[in-house]
Amino acid sequence: MQVQDDDKPYDDINITPMLDLAYVLLVIFIIMTTASVQGIKVDLPKASSSVSLAKPKTKAITISNTGDVFLDAYPVSMSELEERLRTAKAADAELPIVVKGDSAVQYQKVMDVLDLLRRLDLTQVGLVTGRAEQG
Q: Which long-range contacts (CB under 8 A, 24 or more apart) does 107-111 make?
């Protein structure tokens, strides 16, 4: 029969009470946070499920490989493009524009469109590119 020595130090630490305390604190914080965020109950207005009639603000200028210019998928000449962009800028001074040029288009055509945008003082311009192929 072996005699155990009570003076021997513990080999491991019992962390169960510490975990119990952590879980209780977590539950208390969750309850307090949700209680303080509730605020005042109000009846929110219901939105119709129909499609919004508001047009998107961003204008897309596309230059095809033949050099044709399109504004939001409608073919336009450079003078028509200038006129339509002037009226759109009058409605929204911060009019965002994206320019999509075909990779086979002449660089001068894209520069003509960018120069027109600069003359109209349209500064929010983005150039659309495709993803580079990983090879």
A: 109/63, 109/67, 109/69, 110/63
Q: Please give the Cα distance from 117 to 35 (Å, whole number).
A: 52
- Name which of 91, 82, 98 is nearest 55 in CA terms: 91
Amino acid at 39: G
φ, ψ at 17 (rounded to 5°): -60, -35
Confidence (pTM): 0.55
Which residues partner with 100 through β-bridges? 62
The rounded distance, in Å, linking the Cα atoms of 19 and 35 is: 24
Q: What is the 8-class DSSP label of residue 58?
A: -
Which residues, 6+ apart, have CB-to-CB distance to 100 below 8 Å?
60, 61, 62, 63, 127, 128
pLDDT in tens, 27-80: 998 888 776 655 445 555 565 555 554 456 888 888 888 888 888 888 899 999
Contact 91, 54 (CB under 8 A): no
Other beta carbons within 10 Å of 28: 10
